[in-house]
Each structure stands twice: as C-alpha cells, then as structure tokens.
Amino acid sequence: MTRSPPPAIVPCTMEAWRDDTATPTTQMREIAEETPVSLTFNGMPHGVMMATPLDLEDFATGFALTEGIIPTPAALKGMEVHVEAEHIRIDMRIDGPAFHRLLARGRRAMTGRTGCGICGTDAQEVLDRPAPTVPHAPPD
Asked: So where are the chain's domains?
C-alpha cells in the first residue's frame, strides 16, 4: 500500500483576541503543517528535519547541496521518498566521491536552529517522545 504524504496546509479553529474586547472570537485559519523528514545517504541515516511535505525532492537536493554533501546536483544519482506512518524518509543515492567525503567527515554535530528539538537529530526514535501539554490561557 502506498501512503499519501500528510497535508501541507491544515484548517485550524482558533480563538482570536482583540485589544478592544474581552471576549474571544472563533476563527478558522489555514496553517502550514510540518512533518519529520529523515534523510539517508547510500543507506546511512544522516538526520531528521521538520519540513512542510511539499517539493520534498527539491528540499532534499537543496539540503545535500547546502550542507556540502554533494558538490553539484549531478552527484545525486537517485532518490526515493517513502511516506511512513509517523514520518517521511528520503533515501538518496550519491556518487562514490561524495559518499567518501561524507564518511570522512565522521558523525556530524549539526542541530537545527529552532527550538523544536527534532531538526538535526540523527535518529527517528526521538519522535517517540510524548509532546508536552500546553495549558489554555487567554493573553494578559
């Protein structure tokens, strides 16, 4: 069975507070939805990043180029996107010289620049952590 990727935009019902009233109004908004995307190179897990599940091939190619894993798009020999139950896995095949450079780097210590705690991790198991509950409270 082939899974469809999760939605990139989801409707969200929210309470909106205005400065001139003490009563919230309910509004429907569309928000971007991100999902964990794990990246592998020649079968070797490299990292998990949060991404909107659109244009994933472009995302993966851009990541590999920006991180210096491949010097040019020609070094990317193939790519498969797998939609799993809880995440998306992108398996990339890179040429021998690029893979040897990646192996020579050793384990990287890259972390994402945001506070989600997912970006930059190298194992999918981090996603098994329960999400903290945020209490509902109106703004001050």
From this structure: 35-123
Pick from 63, 90, 66, 69: nearest CA to 78 = 90
Domain 35-123, what architecture?
Roll (3.10)
Specify which of 30-34, 99-103, 108-112 reaches the highest per-range mean pLDDT. Answer: 99-103
The residue annotated as part of the active site, out of 9, 116, 123, 126, is 116
Inter-residue contact 138 to 19 (CB < 8 Å): no
Tell me, yes or no, if 119 is annotated catalytic: no
pTM: 0.70
63-95 confidence digits (pLDDT tens): 999 999 999 999 999 999 999 888 899 999 999
